[in-house]
Amino acid sequence: xxxxxxxxxxxxxxxxxxxxxxxxxxxxxxxxxxxxxxxxxxxxxxxxxxxxxxxxxxxxxxxxx
Length: 65
Description:
Elements: H1 6-15, H2 20-27, H3 32-40, H4 50-57
């Protein structure tokens, strides 16, 4: 089983100069601190998060693994 690459998500967000709040807004997450918990691994991204996440980060879902 492939592991989920959280560092790729953070790195890609920074490359695109997106803030935590912008990511939270796009993902439909209440606030930046909650999104940060997903990005840092405190909360796990769910399957339904992956399509919008790949869209905002302009990458393929497979890049997350």
